[in-house]
Design brief:
Elements lengths: L42 H11 L22 H14 L3 E2 L3 H10 L9 E2 L5 E2 L23 E6 L5 E5 L4 E4 L7 E2 L9 E6 L5 E5 L14 E4 L23 E7 L2 E6 L2 E6 L8 E4 L23 E6 L7 E5 L9 E5 L5 E3 L17 E5 L6 E6 L1 H6 L5 E7 L9 E4 L1 H5 L21 E4 L7 E4 L3 E4 L7 E4 L28 E9 L2 E8 L2 E6 L14 E2 L14 E4 L6 E6 L5 E4 L6 E5 L6 E4 L2 E8 L5 E4 L18 E3 L4 H4 L8 E3 L7 E4 L2 E5 L12 E5 L5 E8 L2 E7 L9 E7 L6 E3 L12 E6 L7 E5 L7 E2 L8 E4 L7 E2 L9 E6 L5 E5 L2 E5 L7 E2 L8 E6 L5 E6 L4 E5 H4 L1
Parallel strand pairs: 3-34
Antiparallel strand pairs: 1-49, 2-58, 4-5, 5-6, 6-7, 8-9, 9-10, 11-12, 12-13, 13-14, 15-16, 16-17, 17-18, 19-20, 20-21, 21-22, 23-24, 24-25, 25-26, 27-28, 28-29, 29-30, 31-32, 32-33, 33-34, 35-36, 36-37, 37-38, 39-40, 40-41, 41-42, 43-44, 44-45, 45-46, 47-48, 48-50, 50-51, 52-53, 53-54, 54-55, ...
Length: 883
């Protein structure tokens, strides 16, 4: 449930005044008074903060501080995507082919023994009634969830296909549920588009384009000839390497061609043969493409973004391209071929649909099956830059069926807000994230029956004259809502997770269903389903049954389960809060809403947990945050506490900021923002005032990694952190504040000028430390000081470093752990590698697909390694099996 500049605070708020201001009142007040409950995002605060951001948003691709790609948008989800990408691209631009080469290299490494076990392959209930504490989203109505779904496809035989952001493509043979992964052999697990052609083949465009700043580029387009039974193979790639290191927003068919809207313009290929190169149909700024004169420019990734293609059903040679960067650029607009065969901007005749660059951003098209109508969603850069409520320009219809129009506007954000939406507060209304959330489809049997997705799901049965919010953002705020743990969400019907990305219509056992993919996974309802008096659907079903695990973890924590034996496993997730899995659970619960960042868990007691939101907003609980909601009437009954250090309030911390416990003193914690923060109360901490700043990394510097052992502390930082002036460094000192100094990193590239992602300290010697480095080497990174190497070793407390990468693939490294036998395990963007003690070369651990492993940790027994993957959940493996 991503939202701009959101703050996760469960506060009861009073009624909306005439000026739309929301005022916080004590937690002891009765819930629901005035018809407006609480939530992790206090909407009044959101409104105020978003209003402050208006004016800072410009069509420029650079912010005032030069650190950003989209004009310093206040939207946290944009900032999170940008920072995630920065770690992998800075100090420059990554050349095409980097991930493909890395996957080939990793696949050729010798393998260790042992097999990974999926720890999180069971349902994850976001409404688990056990966890209705002050910071939980439980009772919001989303039910079982999994990781973000970027694209959907379905047929009339009950087969459903779900393409995830980072965990590959999944198939259901039973109309949804009982899923099977079908793309694990591909070098990219990031989905941009899925489409079934008229022959029943499934086309996959890799490289998620949802945010236009995604960390995971693709390796091209693939075809599965028999999607009912087969699995994707790299041999079935369409064309050559033209679309490597690209994101694919849409795949459309017409005139014997497949058209691809990508981050490198619009391309086409014959659907009759997979051989032959892709044809570049149109790129508005070709000099910024790979090989062009401006390819190394930091803005190059944003100069040729294509969003969708509309093909005239009566004339497949008549094609309209929707091209443009979400925050605005001179090239934004709609294009079609003129008489001379040249693509030209459409400047008139579109009717209500904007033709000027300021009015055209992210666009989605949908055509009725009979060809009588075309529909469109348009996000406006001008609205994004100036309107605190929404970036949506509108929904449109072309009743001629032609993509050239004329187009008529059939909805705006005010009308959608009045259609039963949960987003009715100033500063956060429908379409506020229209650059991130869009889908559109038409009922094959009724050209006036339309489904549209933004943050919520909307339905029209009369061609757009009226709309119903059939999938509201959540149920908080509705009179039917209640926190009663005996009910999922009071008397409200279940809704979908928020933030919509993909949609498909298919049939199963003779009934038609609509399938939607969003930040919480996959949901379905009958195509012509039921609604209540408010226009909310009464028949959504979550298809996230535990057989599909695409959860996007940033972190993992493991501690003994003192109540049931075994261990408790927890972790922070993209837009799905914090998961808690205790040893006797058959269903995971969520005790923490919003985005989950870094995690600390007491090895001796798995219910002692520190859970980070973003920007060092840390909550601590000593009972797993078990709560039935009684804190609403009695504030003393909360079971988690805000303990954020001061850099949270000033914004001087990374989106996912580093947090660590001293390996020798678990009650000593280290947190990194601009400052290195230390607190010594462990899980008994109750206030952010209990942190002490032991070192100032410097203005503009923010910590990227911290570690401590026996009182010795290591902190890595970057600043600026973007590819425009990127700089990094390491500081070392003691937890008591003494001995702090900056390490001089040689300019000869001994440690590359790239993002420093993690430390692993030798438990036997605090001066012996390993460093992981993200990004790609200078072979792939066009930027100053990119250097080589991904793993470095120091035996003198960080004073000098040695590159120990050897045969390690050139792939971003994210985390490292020293194993009990003295070996070293490293998590990378494509899996886990291991260097045995006494060896200098690396092996691949197990057979994980090409998924990012953002954090590695040892369990309380010291013999089990846990991997937090950003797209395939949490895995474990016994160290003895590979070490």
């Amino acid at each position: 449930m991503s939202a701009p500049t959101r703050r996760r605070r469960w506060l009861t708020i009073c009624a909306i005044t005439a000026s739309a201001a929301l005022v916080a009142i004590p937690a002891s007040a009765a819930p629901g008074q005035g018809g407006s409950p609480f939530g992790p995002r206090v909407l009044g605060q959101l409104a105020a903060e978003r209003e402050q951001s208006v004016g800072a948003l410009t069509p420029s691709l650079k912010g005032d501080d030069g650190d950003g790609d989209d004009g310093n948008e206040a939207d946290e989800i944009a900032e999170g995507a940008d920072q995630y990408a920065e770690a992998r691209t800075s100090p420059g631009v990554v050349a095409p082919g980097a991930y493909g080469a890395a996957w080939r290299s990793l696949s050729n490494l010798p393998s260790t023994g042992g097999s990974w076990r999926n720890v999180t392959n069971l349902p994850y209930n976001s409404d688990d009634p056990r966890y209705r504490d002050v910071d939980s989203n439980s009772s919001g109505g989303s039910g079982n969830v999994t990781g973000r779904m970027a694209a959907m496809a379905a047929d009339d035989d009950g087969y459903v296909y779900a393409g995830s952001a980072g965990g590959g493509v999944w198939r259901s043979r039973s109309g949804g549920g009982h899923w099977q992964a079908i793309s694990d052999r591909l070098p990219a697990q990031s989905t941009g588009a899925l489409a079934l052609d008229t022959a029943g083949r499934l086309w996959l465009g890799t490289g998620e384009a949802t945010t236009n700043a995604d960390a995971y580029l693709g390796s091209g387009v693939y075809v599965l000839t028999d999607p009912h039974h087969g699995t994707f193979s790299s041999r079935a790639r369409v064309g050559g390497d033209e679309l490597e290191s690209t994101t694919v927003h849409q795949l459309r068919f017409g005139g014997g061609k497949v058209w691809a809207a990508t981050s490198k313009g619009v391309w086409s290929h014959s659907t009759k043969t997979l051989k032959g190169a892709w044809k570049l149909e149109f790129a508005p700024n070709p000099e910024f493409l790979p090989g062009g004169s401006e390819a190394a420019d930091p803005d190059a990734p944003y100069k040729n973004i294509a969003n969708d293609i509309a093909i005239d059903p009566k004339n497949p040679n008549k094609v309209v391209l929707a091209v443009g960067w979400r925050s605005g650029d001179d090239y934004n607009g709609f294009y079609t071929k003129g008489a001379g065969g040249t693509w030209t901007r459409i400047t008139s005749g579109l009717g209500d649909l904007p033709a000027d660059p300021d009015g055209v951003g992210n666009v989605t098209f949908a055509r009725s099956a009979d060809g009588s109508r075309y529909y469109a969603i348009d996000q406006s850069p001008e609205q994004l830059n100036s309107n605190p409520d929404s970036g949506l320009e509108g929904f449109y219809v072309s009743k001629s069926g032609s993509p050239t129009g004329p187009w008529t506007k059939i909805a705006d954000y005010q009308g959608l807000a009045a259609s039963g939406s949960a987003l009715t507060s100033s500063g956060y209304m429908p379409g506020v994230q229209a650059w991130y959330n869009q889908f559109l489809t038409v009922d094959p049997s009724d050209p006036q029956h339309v489904y549209a997705g933004l943050e919520e799901v909307y339905e029209s049965k009369d061609g757009g004259s009226t709309w119903s919010t059939v999938g509201p953002y959540w149920n908080f705020g509705f009179s039917c809502w209640s926190i009663d743990p005996a009910k999922q969400t009071g008397d409200c019907n279940p809704t979908t997770h928020s933030d919509q990305h993909g949609v498909a219509i298919g049939r199963y056992h003779g009934r038609s269903f609509v399938y939607v993919g969003n930040d919480g996974g996959v949901y379905k309802r009958p195509l012509d389903g039921r609604q209540d008096a408010s226009g909310h659907a009464t028949d959504w079903t979550s298809l996230n049954d535990g057989t599909i695990d695409t959860l996007q973890y940033y972190s993992v924590g493991i501690g003994k389960d003192l109540d049931h034996g075994g261990v408790s496993v927890t972790g922070g997730l993209q837009d799905n809060g914090q998961s808690v899995l205790r040893s006797n659970d058959r269903v995971m619960g969520s005790n923490f809403g919003g985005d989950g960042g870094d995690t600390l868990t007491d090895p001796a007691n798995g219910c002692n947990i520190a859970e980070e939101y973003v920007y060092l907003s840390i909550q601590v609980t000593q009972n797993c945050a078990v709560n039935e909601g009684s804190w609403i009437d009695d504030a003393s009954k909360v079971t988690s506490y805000n303990v954020a250090p001061a850099d949270n309030a000033t914004g001087e911390a990374r989106f996912i900021a580093p947090l660590a416990a001293d390996a020798k003193s678990p009650s000593t914690w280290i947190a990194g923002g601009r400052h290195v923060w230390v607190q010594t109360h462990g899980y008994a901490i109750r206030s952010g005032d209990e942190w002490t700043s032991v070192y100032d990394l410097g203005a503009g510097h923010t910590a990227t990694a911290v570690a401590a052992s026996g009182g010795k502390v290591y902190a890595a930082w970057c600043g600026p952190c973007s590819n425009q002036g990127f700089a990094r460094g390491i500081s070392v000192g003691n937890a008591d504040g003494t001995g702090w100094h900056d390490i001089t990193l040689p300019v000869d590239g001994t440690v590359p000028n790239r993002y420093l992602s993690g430390f692993a300290v030798d438990p036997k010697n605090a001066d012996h430390v390993y460093l992981t480095v993200n990004g790609f080497s200078r072979q792939w990174t066009e930027g100053p000081g990119a250097g080589v190497g991904h793993v470095f070793e120091s035996k003198d407390g960080g004073t000098t470093w040695k590159d120990i990468s050897k045969n390690l693939p050139d792939v971003p490294a994210d985390s490292a752990v020293v194993t009990p036998n003295g070996g070293l395990a490293v998590g990378t963007d494509l899996g886990v590698v291991y260097r045995a003690p006494g060896r200098t070369t690396w092996q691949r651990v197990g057979d994980l697909p090409a998924v990012a492993v953002l954090q590695l940790k040892l369990g309380p027994d010291g013999r089990t390694l846990y991997a937090a993957t950003h797209g395939r959940g949490i895995y474990s493996i016994k160290v003895r099996d590979f070490g």
